[in-house]
Every structure is written in structure tokens, then in C-alpha cells.
Amino acid sequence: MNRPIIVVHYHELWLKGRNRRFFLGKLFRALRRSLEGLCVERIEQPGDRLLIRLTSEQPVEQAIVRIQRVLGIAYYAVARSAERSLEALCHAAWEEIEPLTFTTFAVRAKRSDKSFPQGTIEIETVVGRHLLEKLRAQGREVRVQLKAPELTCHIEVTPGPLLVYARKIPGVGGLPANTAGRMMCLLSGGYDSAVAAYLMMKRGAHLGFVHFYGTGARAGESSVQVASRLVEKLALYQLGARLYRVPFEAIQREIVRSAPEDVRVLLYRRMMLRITEVLARRDRALALVTGDSLGQVASQTLRNLVAVEAAATMPVFRPLVGMDKTEILVIARKIETYEISSEPFHDCCPVFLPRNPELSSTAEQLAEAERGLDIQSLLAQGIQGATLQKFSRVGGTVEVADPVPVIKTQHRTAMA
After folding, report:
1. Do 204 and 253 fall into the same domain?
2. 391 occurs within a structural domain
3. What is the reported pLDDT for 14?
4. Distances in Å between the alpha carbon of 222 and those of 70, 219, 268?
5. Beta strand 387-394 with 240-247: parallel, antiparallel or unpaired?
6. Closest alpha carbon to 99 in 166, 149, 199
7. Could you tell me if 9 and 74 are in contact, meaning their C-beta atoms sit under 8 angstroms apart?
8. DSSP-H helix ranges across 203-263
9. How many domains does the chain contain in total?
10. CA 193 to CA 293: how far, in whole Å?
């Protein structure tokens, strides 16, 4: 019986030169983790692609759904295997395209195994002629079109099987998970920060998350639950994640009591960066990630972003800084976080909003506004109240652990 084979082509890894083995190893492990629980016979690498061999009884659709979340894949396809002869290739190609609807087509061959007697041009010519004759014998109005055909029949001659497929499925692209180091993302529960996290994951970063929440939300509107569901969705891309949940309303009230009204939100954000840095060091992260988009709200003017960032000692990455809301929402829908972020929840940042927020602050102005605050005490208060929730991908699902208190004795070392 001809068992299904999924052929996987990776994205940027061919550029990595001597480091390619490292990136391929990460991609290989991500595929194995993602397909855990399915009947995978083996994963192999003939040439510049990966082949996933499934047992005959395993539904291919389940594997396809899981592969859609694996970073580093340019495209993949369910391929037919053929015996090592032109006649077998012609037969497999016809079986592949016969049920499909199209008016123009082309055959494209790729021969990584140079021991195969026919070259790519001969393979394309012979198979293309065979398909055209079979199609016209059925009375179908089709023609060969080498440039931009409706359908392309792909043939790959590998050192192992000959592969034939006509339906390429786009992958996520980017770099494999956990190849670029650790970062910590400030996750609000809205659209932006989840998209920012996804974009950094696509560049190989392994993200942890910090969510600041307030109290007083009505039942079913807690931002903590929204943040947890967002991380559960995002953890599918990097095979697991950690979410730190930090109660923030008491810290906000202290800022409101002691600082000028017009810079309240900016001081909130500076405290969030400081607390996130402590937790980032605890997880050996090297940088922070935010969902800021230049000019989107008052706190995200250029001067305010610079003034707020001055409170951090770690680099702050803003992958959405040049995007508008429409572009961000397109990605949110694609990664399936849009519906989660659209639900009503209690966001701590709008609490005690100033009537006339500052649009053009400086780091010196904000530092002066913080003179009445005990920064170290507020920092310790945030860390001591934080809880940690872990997420682990197991096959096609994510297991979510119950939150536990963050180890209190370690925050002083991290702050030193």
C-alpha cells in the first residue's frame, strides 16, 4: 500500500551555511514534538527537504493541521511516491492531477539525486506530454503554460523515493522555534502584543510573557483569563511558554497618589518595564518585547516611547512600530488571536486615565515625576504578588498548568 508522505521545504535555512545543521536540528525536533501522538513511521532528510512518512491508517489531515504551526517551513505538500522510472512518474503524476480542475498547467522537476538517468528537462517533457495526452483524451480544454500556470505538477527526484505533488500548502515561514534566544513579552490581552509576540517567534525567539492585571472586573471579564488563552494559542508555535501574572492595581494607586496626573500612564509603563526586566532575568531572557505602534495612542508618541524605555536596562523590541491597526488585525486573524482579544475584559492601563495625557515627555521629566515613589518597594511588591503559569505543547494541544507563586527569594538577586 502506498503510504502517505508529507514533503516539507524549509524557509531561510539554506542561507545558514555552516550553522544549517543547528537550525535543521531545531526544525526536526519541532516537527517531532508537533506530530507526537500521530502514527509517524519516521522523519528523514533526503537532500534539501524533510519527508514525514505516516502509516497508512493515519489521517493525513491531522498532521497537516499540526504542521501549520511549525515555524521555519516555507511550504509542504502531501506527495505520492513512485518507483524509480519515467513510466511510474507518469502514472503517479496522472493520479495526482486527474481529479483537479484547471485550464493551464506545467510540470516542474527537481533532481537532487544525480544518479537518476533522466535529467530535469527530459522528465518535465515526458511527463508533461503524457499528462496533456491523457487530459485531451478526456475532452478537457487544457494547455501547457510554463509561466504562471493554474496548476503545477511538482516532481522531486530524491536519493530515496520519487515524489509527485500538485498542491503546495504555505507554511508559517521564518526560523525554527528557539533558535535566536529568549525574550520576554509584555502581554496586555489586546490585539497588538499577541501579534508582536508572534512576529518575534517567527524570527526564532523563544518568548516568555508577563501580564499585568487589575481587580474589580465582572465575572467572565478578567484580563488574566484572556492573557492565558492568548498564551495557550501562541504556545503552539514554540512548543511551550511561561506566563507571569502580576497584580498591578495597588501599584497604580500609589502612582496616582504620588505622581502628576498627566504622566500617569507613562509611569505605569515604566514600572511594568522594570518588573518585566526582573522576571526576564529570572528566565535568562536577553531583551523585552512590546506591542507598541508609533503614534497609535498618546503613550506611543516617539518622545513618550523614548522616555518610557529609559527606565529599562534591557533592549526593548517593538516589531509593530511601523504598522497600522489594519495590518495588525490581519495578522491577529491569521494566528487566531483576534477573537480572543475581541472579548470584553478589564484592562488595567485605562484605570485612572488622565484627562489630558502628556504627549511629549522626556526621560528626565518622568524621573522627576517618580521622585515621590519608592521604586524599589513597588518593584518588590509586583514581584512578590506575581504567579507563574506554564504551558506545554503535547502533540496537537497545549497543556496548561495551574499558576503557582513566583519564588520570592530570587527577585533581589535579579534586581542587583
Report:
1. yes
2. yes
3. 63
4. 30, 7, 19
5. antiparallel
6. 166
7. yes
8. 223-238, 249-258
9. 2
10. 10
Dihedral of alpha carbons 193, 196, 198, 204, sign: negative
Quote the strand ranges of 55-116, DSSP E. Answer: 73-82, 104-111
**What residues of the chain score a pLDDT lower than 50?**
1, 409-416
Sign for the pseudo-dihedral over CA of 237, 405, 373, 345: positive
Q: Which three cell numbers stand for residue 410?
A: 530570587
Closest CA to 268 of 147, 143, 172, 378: 378
Encode pLDDT of 167-215 as tens digits.
Answer: 999 999 999 999 999 999 999 989 999 999 999 999 999 999 999 998 7
Closest CA to 351 of 202, 204, 280, 247: 247
Can you tell me the distance from the alpha carbon of 259 to that of 340, in angstroms, rounded to the nearest whole number? 34
State the residue range of the domain holding 336. 182-415
What is the pTM (predicted TM-score) of this model? 0.89
> What is the torsion angle, in degrees rounded to the nearest 10, for the CA atoms of residue 290, residue 340, residue 73 and residue 14?
-10
User: Same domain for 411 and 298?
Assistant: yes
79 and 105 share a domain? yes
Rounded to an integer, what distance in angstroms lies between the CA atom of residue 319 and that of residue 192? Answer: 10
- Residues contacting 160, CB < 8 A, separation 6+: 44, 46, 51
Question: What residue has cell string 492565558?
Answer: 228
Enter the C-alpha cell of residue 51: 519527508
Return the C-alpha cell found at 19.
Answer: 550553522
Question: In the prediction, which pLDDT does 411 show?
Answer: 45
Cell, residue 57: 491508517
User: What pLDDT, on a 0 to 100 scale, did the predictor assign at position 207?
Assistant: 98
Amino acid 356: pLDDT: 81
What pLDDT is attached to residue 202?
Answer: 96
Task: Give the bridge partners for 151, in sequence order.
Answer: 105
Q: What is the chain's percent helix, strand, coil content, to nearest 5? A: 40, 20, 40
3-state secondary structure of 29: helix
